[in-house]
Structures are given as structure tokens and as C-alpha cells.
Amino acid sequence: MTDNNQLPIESQQETQDKTTLVRVGITQGDTNGVGYELIYKTFSDPAMFEMCTPIIFGHIKVANYHKKVLGFSNISLNVIASAEDAVPGHLNFVNCSDDDVKVEFGVQSAEAGHAAFMSLEQAVNDRKSGLIDVLVTAPINKASIQSTNFRFVGHTEYLSDRFGGESAEPLMILCNSLMRVALVSTHLPVSEIAFAVTKDNIDTKARLLYDSLKRDFNISAPRVAILALNPHAGDNGVLGSEEEEIIKPTIKALSETGLPCYGPYAADGFFGAGMYRHFDGILAMYHDQGLAPFKALSMNDGVNFTAGLPIVRTSPDHGTAYDIAGTGTAQAESFRQAIYTAIDIFKARTQYEESHANPLPKIYQDKRER
What we know:
Blueprint: H1 9-19, E1 22-27, H2 35-42, E2 52-58, H3 60-70, E3 77-80, E4 91-95, H4 110-128, E5 134-137, H5 155-164, E6 171-175, E7 180-183, H6 193-196, H7 199-215, E8 224-227, H8 242-256, E9 261-265, H9 267-272, E10 281-284, H10 287-297, E11 303-307, E12 312-316, H11 333-356, H12 359-369
């Protein structure tokens, strides 16, 4: 017999489990892209609600329109006034605006870009207020989202500005079951890449990658590979001087401080020969050098993680997919993996910070318990 005011043991445990679920804030992304299709397909699986409490930030009229066109009548949205009202076991929805937004699948428009910005801004504000634990962003169109409020080349730079200003140093890490690839330079024109390959940049990004591998991915002794900039790693200066003058000295200096990094490796041979299997993290010099082989080897389950920030943010490693938007054929695996990864990193980071918060008393306590 149980007290009328007390839940049975099983119900108490179930309630406790629900209150400890990670609160995942999800932005709608570009409203003319595949964002809502990815969200609906992901949360059509009831098992997802056992892992997290999802909270979508978007326009309810747009969400319902996508749901109708794409045939997700089985999806029920729990519209709430604030993220703090989110209910475990439901697909919660914070309506960022009652404005009418015209949905034109596959079309780049300022209207869709503004809707994406409103969703992102509300989610970021709620993360700053502690109403959500992690942020998962659906794809945006970098051109259509530009405005007086958003003058950034992507999510990474915007989040760096919002969560740390000049003191925050973001690091884009693409991860999947095969590898983790980080970038020295991110969204830069090819003509500017060589100028970004400096000793300071490589040193900073290598340290950020190493620290993230330990803190966010729970790897106790990470090994980091650093790629060359030029073909054939410069061929001893014949094809460029960056390897001899910048990259090799930086690797040597990092190694002398105790950071296990190796290279520089020519990118084609490194990926072609499968050398990525021997390292916990890879530092590429520029966007396509790292992302082209990453996506070629594993296109459907890649995740973009922004390391170096005080928050956890992930996204699928693809764009708005305008060419298939509204057709119902988008693959949701990358988006689903983005949610899994955000949850895993949040838990790993929490565990890491707890274990390193006050190490001396812990050591003393461990000795007493022996």
C-alpha cells in the first residue's frame, strides 16, 4: 500500500528520469528548406522522447503548413508560451511570431531568412537564460538571412559573437563514426585561405581541438593529425613555403608542450590511405580540404559541432537542400545524429567539469576510502 500523496516507486523513478532529460532547443532554419521535414521525421520515432525533451523555436503557421504538405498528420505540436513550460514526452513548440510567412519550397527569400533569424535569436536568448540545455540548428541560407541584425557568414560566427564576443574562439568540428575534422579557417574565400594559415591560428585551433576531444568527447589522451596546406605537403618548399615556415614549426612547438600532434600530412594521401583511422582528431587548414573527404566517406550521418564556446551547439552537416525541399525525400539521419551528439557532448562536458571542479578534495577522499 502506498501513501495517497506519494507516487509508487516506479512512478517516482519515471518522474525523476523525465526531469533529468536534456532539454534540446531546435531552430526551424530556413522556412523554404528541409528543416521541418528533418524535425518531423526525427520525432516520428517515439524513442526520441526517451532521450530528450525537444523544444522547437519557429513560426507555428509555417510548421503546420509543412506538416500538412509533407503528410505528417500524426505529429502533434505542443504549443507553449515559453521553453520553461516544455513537457517531457511531447514535441514542444515556442511560437516566435504570428506573422504570415510565405512558404516557397526551394526558393531563396529574405522573408524566409528573417523567419530563420527570429527562430535562432529566440533559441539563443533562451539558452542564455538557461531554459534549454543544448542548441540544435536546422540549416539556414547564409545569403537570405543577412540583415542589419545578422551580418555573419554562418551560425559559427554568430554564436561566437552572442556567447563570448571577442573572447570566444569557436572551432568547427565535423564528426561522425569515422572521424572528427576541425578547421583552421572556416567560411573564407579561397583567395584568403593562405593568409589565415598562421602559427597563432594553428596553435589556437589545435589546442581547442585537443581540449574538446578531452572535455566533449571523453578521450583521455587524444592524438591529433595536422594537414598541410599545399599539394604534397609543399614538396620541401617547391610547391609553397607554408609547411616549412609555419606548419612544421608550430607542430614542433605544440609537441614540446605535451600536445601529441603529428604532420603535416598531404590531405589526398592522408584520407586516401585511411590514415584518419589512427587519430582522434584531424585539423584541416580550410573548409573544403576537410569537409570534402569527410562527406565523401560518410555523407548521411555527419554532424557539425561548434567547439570552443560555453554552450553545446550542433547541426546536420548539410544545407537547406532547396533542390528536394517539399518533396518528402530528405534524409534525416544527419539531423538525428546532431541531436544524439548534442546530448552526448552535454553529458560528457558535465561529467568532465564535475570531475575537475575540485580535484584535491576528491584525491584526499579517495585515499581515505581505500
